[in-house]
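User: I'm new to structure prediction. If I give you an amino acid sequence, what do you actually give back? Let's try with this one:
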Amino acid sequence: MAGRPVREHARRARAAPLQQGVDALTYAEFRGDRVYLQTNRDAPRWRLCVADPAEPAYENWRELIPEDPGAVLEDYVVLDGPRWRRPCCWSPRPGTRSAS
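Assistant: Good question. You get back a string of structure tokens that encode the predicted 3D arrangement of the chain. For your 100 residues, that looks like this:
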């Protein structure tokens, strides 16, 4: 049953570009009704954004973990499940916990 939500999402999803004509990298992680976007767009040291998978265009991105001028965002973890009221993002640097 673990793969069922992914298959259902894939069935409903339509392909849409996250960005075009931009000198930036973006990695997308689809989790339920959200897509988490780790990007260096407008953030050379990287940041984490979130969007609705049905509307993933840049103007719909919401920043969860902003760029830190003193550190590079190399990774993050989305904490979710029955113990959490809503998903939470965490990065291994101090002060980066952010509710999504």
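You can read the tokens as a compact description of the fold. Here is one thing that stands out. Helices lie at 4-12.
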